[in-house]
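A quick aside before the break. I want you to see a complete sequence-to-structure record at least once, exactly as it would be stored in a machine-readable document. Don't worry about memorizing anything.
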Amino acid sequence: MLKKLMKNERGLTLIELLAVVVILGIIAAIAIPAIGGLINNSRIDAHIANAEQISNAARLYVTTENVKIADGDSKTVKLSELISKGHIENIQNPSGDGSNYGDDATQVKVQRSGNNYQYFVILKSNATENAVEYLDGKTETSALARTNIKNP
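That is the input. The structure line, written in tokens, reads:
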């Protein structure tokens, strides 16, 4: 009996194989762009996290170095200053080229209004020519969103 059943089974037809290939193609067409978007969003989130880390280092710098900023004034702190004072280590740029942020191009603007301090970060690559700006320093660090990051 088993031999009769096995004898009638000849495998998949060409139509069945074609249906499987079409289904796999549809799944791939949906999955590949979604994965690309996830990778890009991860890079953007890493830039935001780095900006927050640099901002926190500037906050620590202003506090521990007893930096005086008059009411209504601001002070710009370069990443190189934060690194040299030991408030932060060099941070790798997550954009995939293996570089770090520019030590002098990446800056934090600390602005004082009464007893409130606001921190605005400018993130730039360390390339001497065609430096890429990821964050323009116009949005306070605590309010950053994915839309603020350019050229991820």
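Two observations worth writing down. The mean pLDDT is 87. The CA atoms of residues 130 and 151 lie 12 Å apart. We'll return to this after the break.
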